[in-house]
Automatic annotation (TrEMBL):
Key word Protein biosynthesis present: no
Pfam families documented for this protein: ThrE
Family to which the UniProt record says this protein belongs: Belongs to the ThrE exporter (TC 2.A.79) family.
Protein name listed in UniProt: Threonine/serine exporter family protein
Stored InterPro entries: ThrE-like_N, ThrE/Ser_Exporter
Domain of life: Bacteria
Keywords: Membrane, Transmembrane, Transmembrane helix
Membrane-crossing residue ranges in chain numbering: 147-166, 173-193, 205-225, 237-261, 273-292, 299-317, 323-341, 353-377, 389-410
PANTHER family: PHEROMONE-REGULATED MEMBRANE PROTEIN 10 (PTHR31082:SF4)
Domain (Threonine/serine exporter-like N-terminal): residue spans on this chain: 23-257
Length: 421
């Protein structure tokens, strides 16, 4: 029944219950660091335990995991570290595919997980900083910022990117990075706005720190809550809201220090840049993700295609339905197609690596940040964006959950066709 496992691990006498328990904990930690929602992590762990014929249960939370072997009376706990880069996510998914088929000895799998977790970036820091600048440029174009505002966003992103790369290595002041960097970004932007005449400084201040906005965490929390993982979902939701509020506080503090007039806190993005910039916004943002997060080469084309296609599917849907619902349908469609590509393409590109840049491009975490900032600064026009942001997050969470339910049917059909041939 398990020929791959029997041939692969029969000679490995070191494989025992303790190692399998450690493997379950390490796999759960790696999936948490790869941005997997808790229900998906639990499903993967169950499949791996069934493949290796072990009875191990796991309780997965937003920041840690508890694995329990009731038969042996052993427990393993793993705390979630910082998020993986895309090269690490792709390697994790490739390893998980083998573990689901029990095609790898447990000892070898443990060593492979350890190698993935400590792997250095495959590109140098200057290339990653360039990628961060392209992400800022792409996001500014999505907002249709004016030329001067776009230049300001890219220039201010340079020191922000350098600090983020340094802090990811040193690990100092990690908890304070969102509020500190938002304050510094907003301070530079507001000073530039006062003395240089920049439009829409509140939204512009979001762009250099867009990777710190917990829009993905908010959406993941909603997915977990709607699927019944109340503890994990509530914990992640509270954590994301605290980060969001702290960043809005940093922005409001910078505005208050500089003394930016209330009349300058306006949402002017729809009238700034010409509409043609939208054609290059998504590809530029995707290329920035490729460089900054070290995307494997086999996924480069898919990353750009998914970002561009989903962005314009959303634009098309907005002409027919509410924009909040359009974003949800577009993201759900993209996630379903990502699973189909993963099952059909020979290179088996990582689902998350293809999908996450599109997710970050579409997720309205920036709207929520701007809305909270508007409430703090008593700007009612900006504060009113909060309702749309909440509706968009809920729409995306539900549509992604539907895509997760449909994905197994799509992938099985694709594999059935390939087997028939």
């Amino acid at each position: 029944m398990r020929q791959g496992w029997g041939e692969g691990v029969a000679d490995d006498g070191a494989d025992d219950d303790g190692q399998m328990l450690t493997l379950v904990a390490d796999v759960g930690e790696a999936l948490n660091r790869s941005s997997y929602p808790v229900p998906m992590t639990q499903q993967v762990i169950r499949e791996i335990c069934e493949a290796y014929d072990y009875d191990i249960s796991a309780e997965v939370f937003a920041t840690y995991l508890i694995a329990l072997d009731k038969k042996q009376g052993k427990v393993a706990v793993a705390n979630t570290g910082t998020m993986f880069r895309f090269d690490q996510i792709a390697d994790t998914e490739s390893l998980v595919d083998k573990l689901r088929a029990a095609a790898l000895p447990v000892t070898q799998a443990l060593k492979r997980l350890q190698t993935i977790s400590v792997a250095p970036p495959p590109v140098n820091p200057f290339v990653r900083i360039l990628g961060y600048l392209l992400m800022a440029l792409g996001f500014a174009l999505c907002f249709r910022m004016s030329f001067s505002a776009t230049i300001a966003a890219v220039v201010i992103s340079i020191p922000i990117a350098a600090i983020l790369l340094w802090s990811s290595v040193k690990g100092t002041l990690a908890a304070l990075m969102p509020v500190l960097l938002t304050f510094l970004s907003a301070l530079a932007i507001t000073l530039w706005a006062v003395h240089g005449g920049l439009d829409d400084p509140v939204r512009l201040a979001v762009i250099p720190v867009v990777t710190l906005i917990p829009g993905a965490a908010l959406t993941t929390a909603l997915i977990e809550l709607t699927t019944g993982d109340m503890i994990a979902g509530a914990t992640r939701l509270v954590s994301a809201l605290v980060v969001l509020l702290s960043m809005a506080f940093g922005l409001a503090l910078a505005i208050d220090i500089v003394g930016l007039p209330a009349r300058d806190l306006q949402d002017l993005t729809s009238t700034q840049a010409p509409s043609w910039v939208l054609w290059i916004a998504a590809p530029i943002f995707a290329i920035g993700n490729i460089l900054y997060l070290c995307t494997p080469r086999r996924v480069w084309v898919w990353t750009v295609v998914f970002a561009f296609g989903t962005f314009w599917l959303n634009e098309l849907l907005q002409t027919k339905i509410n924009p909040a619902f359009a974003g949800g349908v577009a993201l759900g469609t993209a996630l379903l197609l990502a699973w189909a590509v993963n099952a059909h393409a020979k290179s088996k590109p990582s689902v998350l690596v293809m999908f996450l840049p599109t997710f970050w491009l579409m997720v309205p975490g920036s709207m929520g940040f701007v809305a909270v900032s508007g409430a703090i600064t008593e700007d009612h026009e900006l504060g009113g964006l909060g309702t749309n942001a909440a509706l968009s997050l809920l729409s995306m969470a539900i549509c992604m959950m539907i895509a997760s339910v449909l994905a197994p049917f799509v992938t099985r059909r694709l594999w059935a066709k390939k087997s028939a041939v």
